[in-house]
Specification:
Structural class: mainly alpha
Number of helices: 3
Oligomer: single chain
Helix content: 55-70%
Order of helices and strands: HEEHH
Largest sheet: 2 strands, antiparallel
Length: about 200
């Protein structure tokens, strides 16, 4: 078996949580820009086109519904804010929200980096343990079982010693399975942090 998980703390940027928080940062930056843009004058342009058709005419007025009965127009508007203080407050609020969002991002990024470092240390420990059990521990358990089985069948050991040997071999296998489970759980946690 080969163990091929390479972990780099730079991979933490791919984390789904950090991607979400980065998107929140981007949104708060745009909210700040929108609130700042509302401090200046607002210019509006509009165009309309209307076509009159024959319909309800309660007074029997003579209306011409030819091609000349189309009406078109446009409008231009300019609105200038008179009170800047309320909008200035909204801009300050948006800036504070943007700073909060950036602080959350940095906080979670540093937490994930430290968690990833700890998990990497655990991973390396579990790799060494799994390799030990696969190269030595399981072989010893098999040897204990074979030796105990031969010795019991030939009458060299008692039933109690045979059961103790079986218990030792099953304990070694159980420890291997527990270490392998811990190894797998650590790999799953690392991959969830780095976004795999």
């Amino acid at each position: 078996r080969t163990f091929g998980l390479t972990v780099d703390t730079a991979q933490i940027i791919q984390s789904p949580l950090l991607s979400y928080l980065d998107a929140q940062n981007e949104i708060s930056r745009y909210v700040t820009k929108v609130e700042r843009s509302r401090l200046g004058p607002d210019i509006s342009l509009g165009y309309y086109h209307q076509y009159l058709i024959e319909g309800y005419n309660p007074n029997d007025l003579d209306r011409d519904y030819t091609g000349n009965s189309r009406q078109a127009g446009f409008q231009v508007g300019l609105s200038i804010p008179l009170w800047f203080s309320s909008q200035q407050g909204r801009v300050q609020y948006a800036k504070i929200q943007e700073q909060i969002s950036q602080t959350h991002y940095q906080y979670y990024k540093s937490n994930l980096q430290s968690e990833l470092y700890e998990l990497t240390q655990q991973y390396q420990k579990y790799v060494a343990n799994v390799e030990y059990y696969e190269k030595t521990g399981i072989v010893q358990a098999d040897l204990i079982l074979k030796t105990a089985d031969r010795a019991f069948k030939s009458g060299n050991i008692s039933y109690m010693e045979y059961i103790q040997s079986l218990n030792r071999a099953s304990t070694i296998r159980k420890e291997y399975i527990e270490i392998l489970n811990s190894y797998n759980q650590t790999v799953i946690q690392i991959e969830s942090i780095i976004g795999n």
